[in-house]
Amino acid sequence: MDVLPGLDPRAPLLQVNDLHVEFRTRDGVAKAVNGASFWLNPGETLAILGESGCGKSVTAQAIMGILETPPGHITRGEVRYRGVDLLKLREDERRRVRANKIAMIFQDALSALNPVYSVGFQLAELFRAHRGTSRADAKNKAIELLDQVRIPAARSRFSDYPHQFSGGMRQRVMIAMALALDPEVLIADEPTTALDVTVQAQIMGLLAELQRQRNMGLVLITHDMGVVADVADRISVMYAGRVVEEAPVYDIYERPGHPYTRALLESIPRLDRKGQPLTAIRGLPPALTDIPAGCAFNPRCGYAKEPCRQDPTPPAYAIAPRRTARCHFFREVLGE
Amino acid sequence: MSDPTTLDSRPRSLAGDAWNDLRHNKIFWASAALVLLLLLMALFPTLFTSADPTDCVLSRQHDGPSGGALFGYDFQGCDVFARTVHGTGSSIQVGLLSTLLAGLIGLSFGMAAGYFGGAIDAVLSRGIDIVLGIPVLLGAVVLSGRLSGSGDDGVTAVTLTLGLLTWTSAARVMRSSVVAAKSQDYVAAARMLGAGPARLMFRHILPNAIAPFIVVSTVLLGANIAAEATLSYLGVGLKGDALSWGLQISDAQKHARVAAAPLVWPSVFLAATVLAFIMLGDAIRDAFDPKLR
Description:
The complex is a heterodimer of chains A (336) and B (293). Chain A has twelve helices and twelve strands. Chain A is an alpha/beta fold and 336 residues long. In chain A, helix 4 packs across helix 5 and helix 7 packs parallel to helix 8. Chain B has 293 residues and is mainly α. Helix content of chain B is 68%, strand content 0%. Chain B has eleven helices and no strands. In chain B, helix 1 crosses helix 11, helix 3 packs parallel to helix 6 and helix 9 packs antiparallel against helix 11. The longest helix of chain B has 37 residues. Chains A and B meet through helix 2, helix 4, helix 5 and helix 7 of A and helix 8 and helix 9 of B.
């Protein structure tokens, strides 16, 4: 693939700045992403954590450039891959970035694999279309990949169709497809949500291993704090389309800097509190058509005072080295 | 499923797998044989009968079957079997070609409207609505009159007329299944993997959206063979010495209470043809759906 204009090998692998995405529907404008920012280095795992509807998946789609437009529109911000703003590229340049540089794993592998083609055919097709590989070579490469994602008897399963695979195996195929063209960034959008718990661990282990081997940057989108703790290096917590806290993984578990993060951590069921009622965050996330003024979390927040209800939203305070939190009262939250 | 140890080096393709499935499908072979027989009859009617379909003698009116005339004689004293066999050609030609034309128009309109959506969809869909708003018979009377030249037998005119007027349901069905397929994750996944619009449309959406279209088209084939009869009956279809099942059926139905055979036999041929194509369409549709293998 030829060089992208403005490509800078020293620039961060992936950098998202002030990304805004809105969905223009008949019922009004839903602001799904409202200034998301984060960065990613090679070999690093960034977890994007948040409830359903907080804009995680939309952010991923915007990075990949597969947002349905309309109704989805990117209104502001930039997505930089090695310094190149992908949002400013032409569609054909953009297409060459996809899968070759940045790839994505979908949540539900069954619906993400084309039901009318055998998995081997779909994989081999990638090599043939992008690399012009011959049929026989493409088949061998595909089998090699299926082996790498540990599909047992890859050679004989090559011609099987997606519906003939189990959930975990399908997700492995999806991973193989995403990794086929050696991307430098892998975005995994809730890769284990559709799987049962034992398979979840296997898939996360596989992802972590493949990432190490290839020194890939991994963006792990999830709502599962348990999954995050084991694999992530850093965490970005999203709420109502904004990154409200950003920190290395151990810092955040030890001492959350945003009331929302803190509430999330407190709501994890714990064995030492057996028999006691589960802690929950009061209320629901705001409707994206009607996000509260000021800090979007203020109606549900125990720390909220007058400034939290006033625009503008709290800035990203640098609360410690490599840590930011969008809360006026981060000191209180940290317990200082 | 083939033996995994003896796989050839080529990845199995959709068409290859479909063929593999079809080879073992009895219904496919039965309908294919029937279709082949009909095509043979259409192309070489003299293989099946040596009688002259235009040799009509009034004294034989409504005579029963005899040595040469398997199905007996009609009102005009013509050999029903000979006329049915010789009518196969124009009936199949009108049915097949008009369905092909309607299918092509319907497929393109439906695909374009469903895939591009927005303004293109709005314009194309209203276009479909307008054509749908034309009463088929009335439209056909006008159109077929304009299209047919003075000397010809009207086969081309009827084919074009039916093709141009009957594609709407196929287009609508295609549009809606393309809309449904387009929003599937695998289309987004294919985009994520760098697929361009043409590849998305023809490799990912089309094979997943075509099944209802095939069903509608096979039904349309039968309907169009029958519609030719209606047009011929109204005097705007086939003309002059032309022979077709439709003409036979419309002629014979006036005397159906006296003599049923001249009505029944061409109807049986028509029904068998429609059935053969519907079964063929069904078998092909099933073969292209991996979940039914």
